[in-house]
Design a protein that fits this description.
Largest sheet: 9 strands, antiparallel
Number of domains: 3
Order of helices and strands: HEEEEEEHEEEEEEEHEEEEEHEHEEE
Strand content: 25-35%
CATH topology of the largest domain: Cyclophilin
Structural class: mainly beta
Oligomer: single chain
Helix content: 10-25%
Length: 373
């Protein structure tokens, strides 16, 4: 079996002896038996509970009592077929969460970006997302109608649970897999990323898949833009296996309407003019002030929860070409590793890193105000 495939399968099938939850299948068709396995810690005496949570720790169903072993999830939590945004299924023994959560991603029809060509203050044309519509809508090219979203920063707000999504999106089933963080080990230190499949499920899955398969091993941060023209920290960019700045995995991702604001430590997809041209090139935002304009137009899909110093160290490397953001000695991603995410608890959310106070020290030379591509 190829090494990359084996690595991915191991991330999908944790050791059955480990306490926590395990899904029998990655893909589960709608209204079918959806089997998971619950393994309590040795000697656990309190009742086992299944908690259906969102990324902010809000409960979206009453906790369900279960027994150890095989469980038909749809039988104990029928609301899973009403999910319209990715949720997290957490095993708890009494009040204590056990093991990593399972990610429950609804497989929904696509929200398609409607775009128009705009021109920035420098006279450079770019593609701007002006609204989102369902892929089943036959009037995608038509003017906005009641119910369409004219603001790309506020895409259609599907409720977490709904018998029928307000925009009529089709649900085909669930992708179910254990939550994992991504550790990037670089020449300048480590960065720990918590993915946000609740905001960009397919983009988060793509990054996880590439990391599990070793795609980023040995790949440099080929573009470092420490400051915009206005002096605001901008981005560090990686993910091109070629020296061209245009390389990728050989396929392209449809843009997703992420609501995750670009801010320090947020990871997002670089792309070309075509909104569906992202693949493997990623960037870390360096400030809210410098990257807020990317919201809705670039797909943010995770946050750094550790490694602020590493991000700043990469942003501080000396540049050979300031206009292109080309480092003299590019920092390199040595390897990536999927590690179990910490258990989720009601009322708690993952905390993104913040830049240390020292980040406000000596300013760097500003570079042309460009976008990640």
């Amino acid at each position: 079996m190829p090494t990359a495939l084996l690595a991915l399968l191991l991330t999908l099938a944790p050791d059955p002896a480990e306490p926590g939850l395990r899904a029998e299948r990655l893909y589960n068709g709608v209204d079918r038996v959806t089997a998971i396995h619950a393994t309590p810690p040795a000697g656990a005496a309190e009742p086992l509970l299944l908690l259906l949570l969102d990324a902010n720790g809000n409960l979206h169903a009453e906790p369900a009592g279960v027994r150890p072993g095989r469980i038909d999830l749809a039988a104990v939590l029928p609301d899973i077929w009403r999910l319209r945004r990715t949720a997290y299924l957490q095993l708890a023994v009494g009040d204590i969460p056990v093991g990593s959560a399972l990610v429950l991603q609804p497989m929904l029809s696509r929200m398609v970006p409607v775009t128009e060509v705009a021109t920035n203050p420098n006279g450079i044309e770019y593609t701007e997302v002006v609204r989102w519509v369902d892929e089943q809508d036959e009037t995608i090219a038509a003017p906005p109608r009641a119910g369409d979203t004219p603001d790309p920063l506020s895409p259609p707000d599907d409720p977490w649970l709904s018998n029928a999504s307000p925009d009529g999106r089709l649900m085909s089933g669930l992708r179910i897999y254990p939550e994992r963080d991504i550790r990037l080990r670089t020449t300048h230190g480590e960065i720990l990323v918590a993915l946000r499949p609740d905001e960009a499920p397919n983009t988060a899955w793509n990054f996880r898949h590439l990391c599990a398969g070793g795609f980023y091993h040995g790949i440099p941060f080929h573009r470092v833009v420490p400051m915009t023209r206005d002096g605001d920290p901008f981005v560090i960019q990686a993910g091109d296996p070629t020296p061209s700045g245009s390389g990728g995995p050989g396929y392209w991702l449809p843009l997703e309407p992420s609501r995750l604001p670009h801010d320090f430590g947020v990871i997002s997809m670089a792309r070309d003019v075509d909104p569906d041209s992202a693949g493997s090139q990623i960037f870390f935002a360096l400030s809210r002030a410098g990257t807020a304009r990317l919201d809705g137009h670039y797909c943010s899909f995770g946050v750094a929860v550790d490694g602020a110093e590493t991000i700043l160290a990469i942003a501080g490397v000396e540049l050979a070409d300031v206009a292109r953001g080309k480092p003299i000695s590019p920092p390199v991603i040595l390897e990536t590793e999927l590690i179990p995410a910490p258990p989720r608890s009601p009322g708690f959310a993952r905390t993104p890193v913040r830049p240390p106070a020292a980040a406000d020290a000596a300013p760097r030379a500003a570079t042309p105000d460009r976008v990640p591509r």
